[in-house]
Structure formats: C-alpha cells, structure tokens
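Subject: Sanity check before I submit

Could someone independently write out the structure tokens for this chain? I want to compare against mine line by line before I put it in a report. The sequence has 461 residues.
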Amino acid sequence: MCFPKKFLWGGAIAANQAEGAYDIDGKGINVTDVSTGLINVPDYKVIPGKYYPSHEAIDFYHRYQEDLELMAGMGFNCFRTSISWGRIFPNGDEVEPNEKGLAFYDDMFNQMLELGMEPVITISHYETPIHLVNKYGGWENRELIDFFVHYCHTIFGRYKNLVKYWLTFNEINNTHTIPLAAAAIRHDASMQTKFQAAHNMFVASAKANKLCHEIIPDAKIGCMLSLSGVYPATCKPEDIFGAYNLRRRSLFFGDVMIRGKYPGYIKRIFEENNVVLDTREEDYFYIENYPSDYLGFSYYRTTTYEEGMPIYGHTGGIVGKENPYLESTPWGWQIDPLGLRYVCNELYDRYQVPLFVVENGLGSVDVVEADGSINDDYRIDYIRDHLKALKEAIKDGVDIIGYTYWGPIDIVSAGTGEMKKRYGFVYVDKDNEGHGTLSRSKKKSYDWFKKVIETNGKYLD
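---
Independent answer below. Compare away.
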C-alpha cells in the first residue's frame, strides 16, 4: 500500500528560524528576536552587541528562490512556512500594513506555486511582535484579538489566490511550557495568565477561521499542536492516570478548537490552580461555530510520566523519564516510530477530522567528509521508520492528508539556538557562533527522500 493519491509531501520551516533580515525592509522585532533559544531566559529587547541566532538565521529572506528550487528538486508538492507578523505590521497594532513585507510573501508564494508546491502557511509561528508584549502584556490582553483579526484580514485578502492551507497558532499548547514564544506572555507567567492567554487565542483563532472561509471559500484552516506522545512510566495505576491527565493538558487545546467547547475536565484544573477567566458571551459563540477544519501537529518523540514528577517541556514536547526501550538522539530525544502510529490513532479517534503531520524530524550532528559528502543514514532510518508507521496509521483508517518534514534545510534550532543541531536534507555552512559561508549542499538523505516522494511511499519497502 502506498500513500493516498493526493497526499501532500513536503517540508516545514518557520520564518524566525530561517529568514533572518530581522530589521530589514520595515520588519519589527518579534519575540524570538530577543531570545538566543527558547529554553533560555529572553531579554525582552535587543541588547546591542549580543549574538542572536535568528537575526541572520540562514538568510532565507535573500536566498528563498535558491532554497525553494532545492525543495522542489525533491518533488515536494507542498511547503510549510510562516508569515512573520512583524513584517506585515512591525509593532502589531498598526492600521496600515508594511507593503514591503506583503510584497516579499507575494513573491515567495508565487514561486512556490510555479515550482508545483502548495503553500501551507502558519499565521503566527513564535513571531508575535515584542511591542505587543511590552505594551499590552501579550495574549493575556483581549486587545490582541482585534490586532490578530486585522492582521488575518490583511493577509487573507492579499493572498487569497495563492494560499489554500492555513494554520493559526503554531503549537498553541506550548503556552504552558514556552509561554513567551507561544503566547507572547512572560516566561514566568502564572497559570491564570497562561489560561487567559489561551482563551483569547481560542477566540482569535475562531474569528480567523470565520474570516478565512468568508474571504477564501475553498481554503482549509487548521489548528496546530505539539503532540509528541506521553506514556505512563509503569503500570502503576497512579502513573497511568497521571499520564492521562498530563496528556489532557495538551488535548484541551484541541478539544476547544476542534470540538468547539471547553471540556468538563478543565473545570477541576481551573479550580485547583485558582484560574478565573475573563470571558464574553460572544467568545463561546465563535468557539462553537467556527472550529478548525483539520489538526496539524508536531511529533518528534515520546516520553514517560511518573506520578508526582514536575511537568516541563520544550519544543520537542513534554519532558519526563527516559524510556529504557528506546534509543535517543544526541539531544536526548527518544526515537519512537510506533508512537507516531499510536498518536495518529489517538487523535483521529478523538476528533474525526483530517490530520496533517506538519512537523517530524531528526536533529543530529552531521559530518562533512573530505569529498564534501554528508552521509546521514541515521536520518534516513528515522524518516523511513516514521513513514512506515504513518502508512500503518492510514491502514488503521486514520485520515492523514500530508507530511511535512521538519526542517528540510538546516535552520536555527528554536529550542537551543544552535546550528549544530541539524535536521535538513540540505546542509547550510554556518556554525553556532554565526560563522560560515551560508552555502548550501545536498546530503545523502536528499536523493533518498526524492525517491520516496516519486514512488508515493513505495520506496520505503
């Protein structure tokens, strides 16, 4: 069995990890422009003389034509990236957009289509203008709902003939673990602030869904969650129920954005954490009547949960105890292809909407040989095993519309700010300190993935 005929094969990046040009052509400063990595304490402003990896990144802003041709060379029929909010509205609260920013994405999306790649566009991927944090307090403030809707109205109208697949907020459930990036609230925010921010984002997302369907009737607009898996550490009942409750902390976001209402279990979580939301009656109308069309999610690994352990996480998902049955990447992310099949079934059983695996990949150390070759067989093994698991999930009856590998070209690590942690099929000559020529070269996995796409997955076997 191969993948469905219209399956979307591609890769995924984010503007803040690739574009660079952080203050060029009218772009404003965003939340990741003041961080050296999302696991580090942010500065909340740019400190002169300090090195921020996102400021140049891989200079995709000036090199996207070359890079998109490399992506098309593998046979991609889609490509996921994000619009940097600060390129369109530098502070986030302006009335008039920045024309240079709009024109940049005009050119990029047109080239994607010319190369046969459907744009899959995230509206807010850890790129909220820092002005909205410093002046308004981020998504805790309801005023951001109107700012976001105005931003969406602008880009939907501008790109209505170019973009048919949209995602509102990247990994919105990471509001709990990396709050500045995910919800533009302080890194040390309280539970009250986190849930209030989430509520305001739910309303904004629902209003964006409504607007998208009005302006682009043939478009699909989804939500995006970080959903790497969580197992109980043992068969001890307390571990099992604890892992179940922990998983619901993430699925809560899907329950609201897809099912269209707050689930019953959240009431206890609110009570135990003294959370009292500031809401309006109309909020629930929008949430109920304008749910997400599909669920996009990231899956990198699984972890295990033991009763009573502290809960924290990063860009790979929740961090718990090591699973003795799994191998790990050099960064400690445990490799679990069967977990992807499990998660796909878990999500489809729960939501019955199309699923889109918009992030899955292996970050590792790549060695350039004397002849210039990069033999990343470990990456090929990782992807092969995960795609086989995805194929099994499709056999299980799960509706999966696509797979965009993260990230098909080396980019700055969101979590650590490193270049050494490489995911790509295409190598970028740059190190952790920002040194290098930025030249691009193909790895062994490039031609391998090309064959996978050419055969619609048959080459896996």
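---
OP: Matches mine. For the report I'm noting this point. The radius of gyration is 21 Å.
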